[in-house]
């Protein structure tokens, strides 16, 4: 990483004061995945609507860098109370804009949370039977 790089104040604030962080007491689905290029790991806990089409509550646990943790916070804020079909159309660049910018070498850290959630939800929609956990 570039030693001159200083994360934006937004990233630092989310890292120090994460939102929607920790495991929900009651959840319907977990989605876990990691960044293939580093040690970032995220697990999302989702409480879905009765029809399984809307995220009513979401939280996450994280291990890794400040950027992926901040990305997890923003992802949860972007998707709460949204239909899964809406979430699948969220652009990863939306996270970069909400993070206040990220170095090109750290883009995968920023994209991890939204890409992971979208992949997990897409796989969830394709399953004929309901499974509580998805690992990517």
Layout of helices and strands, plus pairs?
Elements (H helix, E strand, L loop, with lengths): L8 H8 L12 E6 L6 E8 L6 E9 L2 H14 L4 H4 L4 H8 L7 H20 L6 E3 L1
Parallel strand pairs: 1-4
Antiparallel strand pairs: 1-2, 2-3
Helix pairs in contact: 1-2, 2-4, 2-5, 4-5
Task: Give a summary of the structure in a few sentences.
By secondary structure, the chain is of the alpha+beta class. The chain has 5 helices and 4 strands, in the order αβββααααβ.
Could you walk me through the main structural features you see in this protein, from its secondary elements to its overall organization?
The chain has five helices and four strands. By secondary structure, it is an alpha+beta fold. The protein has a four-stranded mixed β-sheet, covered by helices on one side. Helix 1 (about 10-15) packs across helix 2 (about 65-80), helix 2 (about 65-80) packs across helix 4 (about 90-100) and helix 2 (about 65-80) crosses helix 5 (about 105-125). The model has no long low-confidence stretch (mean pLDDT about 85).
Please describe the structure with a list of short key phrases separated by commas or semicolons.
four-stranded mixed sheet, Sufe protein. Chain: A, alpha+beta, 136 residues
């Amino acid at each position: 990483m570039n030693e001159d790089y200083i994360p934006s104040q937004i990233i630092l604030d989310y890292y120090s004061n994460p939102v929607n962080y920790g495991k929900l007491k009651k959840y319907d689905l977990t989605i876990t995945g990691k960044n293939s290029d580093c040690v970032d790991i995220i697990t999302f806990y989702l409480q879905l609507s009765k029809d399984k089409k809307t995220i009513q509550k979401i939280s996450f646990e994280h291990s890794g860098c400040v950027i992926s943790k901040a990305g997890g916070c923003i992802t949860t804020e972007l998707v709460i109370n949204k239909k899964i079909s809406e979430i699948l159309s969220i652009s990863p660049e939306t996270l970069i804009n909400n993070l206040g910018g990220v170095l090109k070498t750290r883009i995968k850290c920023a994209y991890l949370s939204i890409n992971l959630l979208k992949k997990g939800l897409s796989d969830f929609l394709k399953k004929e039977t309901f499974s509580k956990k998805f690992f990517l």
